[in-house]
Amino acid sequence: MTSFMRKSRHPFRTAIAAVAVIAAGLTGSAVPAVAAPAPPAPVGLSRAGLARLLGNPAPAAKVSAAAAPSGLTCPETISLRSLASNLYVTTEAGVRDNTMGLLRARSATVGAWEKIQVCYDLNGSDTVAYLVPTVPLNGQQRPVTAVLDGSPDIGNRLQARDTNYGPWEQFLMGQGPGYVYLFSFANRNYVSAELGFGGNFNGMLRARASTVGPWEKFAIARA
Fold it and tell me: How far apart are CA 82 and CA 218, in angstroms?
């Protein structure tokens, strides 16, 4: 009988591989696949690009009252409005529980709680932004964090709660036709306004979407 199998240079390795394949077939398990690389971040707005989008030359760079770290500049103060609900993003400063600093699309007008400074690290990327609400929380301004604590339903929430400027505080602001979106570098997800939630969590911002849809689109203006 003619053999269609080439003689292996390593018969022992071949036998082990064959056993592994047979065992996988008998157990119904598959050979583990190599994890795919993380998708690239979308193209974000630079400081100059954000200034052009807002319609006027950027004002003189100013450091926020948060005593921002050395090298951080905050040239813009903005408001964000959810296009899905037509409500402005608010930083919840009037509570004293663990929801203090939570970001929610829930206000019909722009006041002190709806103003956010956009800050950039002069020593880093021109498109990586830190979002710092202007309203003080426990006596000082705090950057927005994507809280990746695994909490059911409210995990990945956007909350101004820490004083660190690290990976969980880094966002990219991108532009689409007639809207902007936010992309979190903490988990590489887009930011959604949770309009399906009720009560005090309605409109909560969460970094949890893999694509940009209606709940991920915002209008932006200088505040």
Answer: 5
